[in-house]
Each structure stands twice: as structure tokens, then as C-alpha cells.
Write a structure and sequence with these properties.
3 domains, FAD/NAD(P)-binding domain, globular, five-stranded parallel beta sheet, 28 strands, single chain, 19% strand, alpha/beta
């Protein structure tokens, strides 16, 4: 059976033979007499083979865009370009696109025609992919059909967008080639395009990564890892497997010490210790899990207390951390890493997971090249304004969100002179603490990143008489444990008697602007952007050349906290105001959050059942 089938074994009542034979020996092998060449089955059709595809666009390959079948909502078998409403075409079925669709008001169908195009006809709840790769939850529990989410809000086409033509406002899409059908490409004109195509894995040009590692961005990726772990344990149990080969087979290397890498390591540990140890008692003593990261600590974007707790938990569980190390190369059975001192180490593995780095989606790169020169120069994503409009797109006809986009953040230093003139002055012509507070509060309307500084100055002015300790605590609580400390440090030399002249004020704004960071490529950011953009369409009449209503507020990201599972029913949480939370209670909260954050009630029920099944019966380890 295929990988997808293996993910559903528990649901169909399949039982691993190893669990039935008990103490008797079990060897997974095919009898020699049955080893016959497999029959090759081919489906003959007119689809173009990927390897034979010339370096031309689909439109050119089809003798011009005019020969492509155009979509029209007025026919069951579309062939015309008729549009009766403002057509909004959405690309993608990930967090950004699906959050946009879920927040879309069905009443908007009176003025918008909504079309979704994606090569994947389902949404996957990516935070639980690590749990899926270990069998803690099943793949069907964390996916939801796109059509179920879309409902009667619009139309859906399972197709891959291969070309965007911004000047003529149209796209070319093709039915996925791997389906085995003849090629079917068609053209969709649009009034407004919404890009939510995400990003791709970044190999950083390291030799062997593409060929020898398992990526971790999709259901297919998680399924491959689950299958590989089973294969490694079965191979290690064969009588001819040497001790050295067994140690290599049962060594698992995860490259990347962020939330994904940490959770994959934690879930693999739980799978091996809780379940595989009962089925492979002789082999399990040789298993080893290593996490490789360039930083000096894992979960580097979290509070340092959380990083230390995770490291201690991993050490207690026997998970090795290979830190301050970069990957130099990957072969079919080993990873070569180099530490900061130049020491080279080779790490053998049975499976290597690549859970670090993202790169620009090819479709985004193609679009960048077709927009006016100088408008798009970001190396990883397309640049948008604060309303998620793509910079340089004709007539403001393209929006982008999620991992595919980055919001251009205007720097306050660019208007330093204007802000200084607007600020209240003291008798000497400088800005006092009170004046600084007022101008920061006013400027925060135009520069959202100044809002936390305005809040801090409010606290510093109002409660300074109670001492710096209180002010520092307020700052930490108001903007989060790490950002609050940084904000407090900026104003450590400013008190009630301080006065800033023009140059000092510019230096202050320059320091603040240095703290501007691109929003992280997380599900939380993509979800908020999708919901925001749906509200923009609801509040405005979005069409080519439209003008945004003045009452429409720009997008502002609100960080609700970060979570990560670290194994043995324990988790870590970095929550604004509350601060770091770690341990069994955090593990319980993490499970609850991941369950109730599912996109549908159906998924919530299925995930809840999976948690209970795993606790009572353990994980299914069948390789079917």
C-alpha cells in the first residue's frame, strides 16, 4: 500500500504482526520464490512530461494565451471570459488563504466573484505534523477539504498556477501532472489577485540536502518520515544486520532547532520510548536522536528560560544537541557538520529531517521579475504595504499574505525632523519626557512599532516615583518578556529631568527603527493577515485602481504567544504578560490549544479521539 494508506492503518483495524507474535521472532521479508519483477503499468495520455518541458511559459507552449481555455462562471464547461462581478482569484490553500476564506462574509457574493485555485484540495493543520509523523494523530484528523471550508462562497479549481500576467490581469493554471491525466491548462482573468502560495524549503545550496534529507512542510513529508522510521527499525531487526549498521539505522538527525525541529525530536522520542521499545526490545537500546542548530541554544526566538528548560529536558531524555554547528554536506547515510572552532564531525543516520530555512516560491520570483524595476528587491518574499497590497502591482490589483509576503515597514527616522517640530518643547527648545511621551503617542498612529514605546513612556512618566523596578516590570509585562527588556534598555538614561535636542531625538528614533523586524513566517501571522484582508474586502469596494477608505486601519500583528512540545507530555509556552510557562501544565495547555485551534469541529473531534487512542492503545506502527 502507499504512504497515505499507512497513515490510516489504525482507523481500519490493522494490527502490526510484531504485536501478535509476542516473544517469538518476527522478520519482515519476502520469500525468495515470490520475488518476481513488478509489472509496469503506464497510463498513456497526452500530458507533457516534466523533463521534456521547454523553458517557456504555458501560454507560449500552447501557441499563445488565446489558445488556452478561459474560465467563465456562466458555463458548466467554461470557455468564455465573461465577468459579471469583481472577480477575486485566490491562490493557495494554506494558513493565509484558508483564514481569508473562512473569514470571508458570504454576503459579499453580491459584489465579488470568489475563485480559489490550489494544487492541493485540502488544508492541513501544520502545527500537528510532528505529532502525525509519530502516529500520535492520524493524517485525516488534521486535514480538511477545501470545498468544505469554501462552501457556497465561491468556486474551487484543483490546479497549479504556473504563470501570473499582472499587466493583463490573468493567471494560467494547470491540473496537477502527477494525477495521470492529459494536461489541462486554462486561463483565468481576474480583477483582484490574492497570493497565499507560501514558500518552499531552503537548502542553502548545501550539497546532498535535496537528495538525502526528508523535508517537513506537508502531510506527504510527515508520512515519509513515519514510514522511514518503521523501515529503519525493521531493517535493524534482521539477523544479518551488524551492531554498527544497527546503530546507524537507529540514529535520527534533525537539522534545525526551532519549534518544528524540537517538536519532531520530541515526538520521535515519545514514539520510540512509549511504543517501539515494546516491539523492538533488543534494538531500541541503540536508538539516538540528535538536533543540529547554528545557534548556541534551541528555540532561540523564545525566552531564554524556555530554551534552557528545553535543553535540560532533552538532556534528561537522551536527545543530543549539536549546537553552534552548521551543516557542510549530506550523503545518503551521514551529515557532516562544522562547529565554530572549525572542527568537522560526521553524524551517521538512518533518517535525516531538514527542518530549517525557507526560500521564495518560484511563482513569487516570476511575479517579482514582471513588476516595475526597483519595486521588488526582497530575497525571500514579495513586498507589500501595510494593507497587504503588492508594491508595484498595476492598479493595486494584487494582494499577498502569509509566508509569500513581507510587509514594508516605514521607518520613523525618515520623518524625524517633522516629528521633532510637532513635539511639545520645553523652555530650552528641547523635548522633555512628557513631550516625548506625547509625540510617541501621536506618531504611533502612523508608525505602529512606536506604540510599545508610547506605552512604556506612559508607565515611566506615571509611576517613576515608585522606582525603576516597577517601570521595568511594567514594560516587560506590557510588551512581552524579551521585547519589554529591550524597550526598557533604550530609555535607561532618560528620566524626568531629561531633555532631547534634535540630534538626540534622531538618535533615539534610529535606535528604535533598528528593532524593526520582518514578521515571522508562522501560522499565527498568516492567520491574522488572512482575517485582516477579509475585513478589508468587506469594508471597501476592492477593484482595479480603487482607493482605500480612510477609516480602514493598516494591518497590525498581535503576538499571542508561542508554544512548543518538548516530549514526555511536557511543553513550553512563551506568553505575553504571563511570561514563560513550562512543564506538564504547559503540556496540557498545549494539547488543548492545538485541539481547539483546528479549522473545523470535525477536526477537533478527530484530534481529541487521537489523543485518547494514543494514551490508551499506543501508536500504530504498521508499515502498510
Amino acid at each position: 500500500m502507499n504512504t497515505s494508506a499507512s497513515m490510516q492503518a489504525a482507523g481500519r483495524g490493522l494490527v502490526p504482526r510484531r504485536s501478535l507474535v509476542g516473544n517469538a521472532k518476527f522478520i519482515l521479508a519476502k520469500p525468495a520464490s515470490s520475488c518476481r519483477p513488478a509489472r509496469k503499468i503506464a497510463l498513456h495520455c497526452q500530458a507533457v512530461v516534466a523533463g521534456d518541458r521547454p523553458e517557456t511559459s504555458v501560454a507560449e507552449k500552447s501557441n499563445g494565451a488565446a489558445n488556452l481555455q478561459a474560465f467563465s462562471p456562466d458555463q458548466a464547461n467554461p470557455s468564455l471570459e465573461a465577468k459579471t462581478k469583481t472577480r477575486v482569484v485566490v491562490l493557495g490553500s494554506g494558513w493565509a488563504a484558508m483564514s481569508f476564506l473562512k473569514a470571508w462574509d458570504p454576503a459579499l457574493s453580491d459584489k465579488y466573484e470568489l475563485i480559489l485555485v490550489s494544487p492541493r484540495n485540502y488544508f492541513v493543520y501544520t502545527p500537528l505534523l510532528p505529532a502525525m509523523c509519530a502516529g500520535t494523530v492520524e493524517e485525516r484528523s488534521i486535514v480538511e477539504p477545501v470545498r468544505a471550508v469554501l462552501g457556497n462562497k465561491g468556486k474551487f479549481f484543483e490546479a497549479k498556477c504556473t504563470e501570473i500576467m499582472p499587466e493583463e490581469r490573468s493567471i494560467v493554471a494547470c491540473f496537477p501532472e502527477d494525477a495521470g491525466f492529459p494536461e489541462a491548462c486554462f486561463k483565468i482573468p481576474y480583477d483582484t489577485l490574492v497570493l497565499g502560495v507560501g514558500c518552499i524549503n531552503n537548502t542553502f545550496g548545501i550539497q546532498g540536502v535535496q537528495e538525502n534529507t526528508l523535508f517537513f512542510k506537508s502531510v506527504e513529508d510527515a508520512g515519509k518520515l513515519r514510514l522511514r522510521v518503521s523501515e529503519c527499525f525493521e531493517r535493524s531487526a534482521l539477523p544479518q544486520t551488524t551492531a554498527e549498521e544497527r546503530r546507524k539505522l537507529l540514529s535520527f538527525v534533525i537539522v534545525g532547532g526551532g519549534p518544528t525541529g524540537v517538536e519532531v525530536a520530541a515526538e520521535l522520542y515519545d514514539l520510540i520510548v512509549d511504543d517501539l521499545s515494546k516491539l523492538y526490545p533488543e534494538q531500541v537500546k541503540d536508538f539516538r536522536i540528535r538536533v543540529v542548530d547554528l545557534m548556541s541554544h534551541v528555540l532561540s526566538t523564545y525566552d531564554r528560560k524556555i530554551s534552557n528548560y528545553t535543553a535540560e529536558t532533552f538532556k534528561r531524555n537522551g536527545i543530543d544537541l549539536v549546537l553552534n554547528s552548521r551543516v557542510q554536506g549530506v550523503t545518503s547515510d551521514s551529515v557532516t557538520v562544522v562547529d565554530n572552532d572549525g572542527n568537522v564531525t560526521e553524524l551517521p543516520f538512518g533518517a535525516c529531517v531538514w527542518a530549517t530555512g525557507i526560500a521564495m516560491h518560484p511563482l513569487i520570483k516570476q511575479l517579482q521579475e514582471r513588476l516595475p524595476e526597483g519595486k521588488q528587491n526582497h530575497f525571500r518574499s514579495i513586498i507589500t504595504d501595510e494593507y497587504l497590497r503588492v508594491r508595484g502591482a498595476p492598479d493595486n490589483s494584487i494582494f499577498a499574505l502569509g509566508d509569500a509576503a513581507t510587509i514594508e515597514q516605514q521607518k520613523a527616522l525618515d520623518k524625524a525632523d517633522e516629528l521633532f517640530e510637532r513635539a511639545p518643547k520645553d523652555s530650552k527648545g528641547g523635548i522633555s519626557l512628557k513631550g516625548l511621551r506625547e509625540i510617541m503617542r501621536e506618531a504611533a498612529k502612523e508608525f505602529p512599532h512606536l506604540e510599545e514605546h508610547s506605552s512604556f513612556l506612559d508607565s515611566k512618566t506615571g509611576i517613576m516615583r515608585f522606582g525603576g523596578v516597577v517601570a521595568k516590570a511594567f514594560a516587560s509585562a506590557s510588551v512581552g518578556s524579551s521585547n519589554g527588556a529591550a524597550t526598557s534598555a533604550i530609555y535607561k538614561d532618560i528620566d524626568e529631568n531629561s531633555t532631547l535636542d534634535r540630534e538626540q531625538f534622531k538618535d533615539l528614533l534610529k535606535t528604535i527603527d533598528l528593532g524593526l523586524r520582518a514578521l515571522p513566517a508562522t501560522a499565527q501571522v498568516a492567520k491574522q493577515e488572512g482575517e485582516f484582508l477579509a475585513s478589508v474586502f468587506a469594508k471597501n469596494d476592492i477593484r482595479p485602481g480603487f482607493t482605500m477608505e480612510s477609516k480602514t486601519k493598516p494591518f497590525e500583528y498581535f503576538h499571542k504567544g508561542s508554544l512548543a512540545y518538548v516530549g514526555s507530555d511536557r511543553a513550553v509556552m512563551d506568553v505575553p504578560v504571563i511570561g514563560p510557562v513550562m512543564g506538564l501544565f504547559a503540556g496540557f495547555a498545549w494539547r488543548g490549544f492545538e485541539t481547539f485551534s483546528q479549522i473545523s469541529f470535525r477536526n477537533q473531534c478527530l484530534v481529541t479521539i487521537d489523543w485518547a487512542r494514543t494514551k490508551v492503545f499506543g501508536r500504530d506502527t504498521s508499515r502498510v
